[in-house]
Design a protein that fits this description.
- The chain has 264 residues and is mainly α.
- It folds into 3 domains: 69 residues, Orthogonal Bundle (Multidrug-efflux Transporter Regulator, Chain: A, Domain 2), CATH 1.10.1660.10; 34 residues; 153 residues, no CATH class.
- A two-stranded antiparallel sheet has the order 1-2.
- β1 and β2 form a beta hairpin.
- It starts with a helix and ends in an 11-residue tail after the last strand.
């Protein structure tokens, strides 16, 4: 007959674990002998080893008793069910690890990889980080609301970034961020941007420049964030409106364009 310490040692567990299994009703608790000690037989060792094996396999203790009492067919079915659950947990944890890895790399947790790549491309081109951050902030709700359209939008972005005129737009705006509203660079930027947008609309159709599929109130909300974060952007849109186009998040043609009398 074995003491509780000997039983724990033979089964490869701690005395505390044995007592825990007693409390959970998984391992029968023997009567005390005349000396007041509990003594265990060999059967308790076998039962404890089975409990330990199931617990180490990830079986919840609430189901261990069920498995200990199951016949061969029931045991196999229960184990298959537990294995399916564990696989699902592993997949979920892997997704968590991937997101954590992206955070560790400095990428946004809320953005698809293709958007992250686009932002990195802007940085590589020398675009001011404030502009990159504003673009990132805009992509987060867009990707959350309509993730199925992100590939289409990013394909368009890749085409645009390949155009030197678009790169020049980003770089010129970067240089104008700390300048006043009457900076002539903003006027030049509005001129070149209006020409580029009009050319794209004529060549690709207006949907190419303004079809982003979001409601005007939401576009206005995103625009407000841009204007609050990058003050020169508001003046740029005012100048652009005088040249026939308006909007930051959602470009739209102004018919007829405002007169150029207020252009500085």
């Amino acid at each position: 007959m074995l003491t509780i310490g000997e039983l724990a040692s033979y089964a490869g567990v701690t005395v505390r674990a044995v007592r825990h299994y007693h409390a959970k009703g998984l391992l029968p608790e023997p009567e005390r002998d005349h000396s007041g000690y509990r003594r265990y037989g060999a059967g308790a060792v076998f039962e404890l080893v089975r409990i330990r094996a199931l617990a180490e396999a990830g079986v919840p203790l609430a189901r261990v008793r069920e498995l200990l009492q199951a016949d061969g067919e029931e045991f196999a079915a229960a184990v298959a069910d537990i294995d399916k659950r564990l696989q699902a947990e592993i997949r979920e944890r892997q997704r968590h690890r991937e997101r954590i890895a992206r955070l560790a790399a400095g990428d946004s947790l809320a953005l698809p990889q293709e958007v992250v790549d686009h932002l990195d491309r802007l940085r590589a081109l020398g675009v001011d980080e404030r502009i990159v951050q504003v673009e990132r902030d805009g992509w987060i709700p867009l990707a959350a609301r309509t993730p199925e359209r992100v590939p289409e939008w990013m394909e368009r972005k890749r085409e645009q970034i390949a155009d030197p005129r678009v790169i020049d737009f980003y770089l010129t705006l970067s240089q104008a961020l700390d300048r006043t509203d009457d900076d002539p660079r903003l006027v030049e930027l509005a001129d070149s941007l209006a020409v580029y947008i009009t050319q794209m609309a004529d060549e690709q159709g207006e949907s190419y420049v303004d079809d982003i599929g979001i409601e005007p109130p939401f576009a206005e909300l995103l625009d407000t964030h841009v204007f609050d974060t990058l003050p020169p952007a508001r003046r740029l849109i005012e100048l652009l409106t005088e040249r026939g186009w308006t909007g930051w998040t959602k470009l739209e043609r102004v018919n007829p364009p405002r007169g150029a009398a207020g252009t500085r």
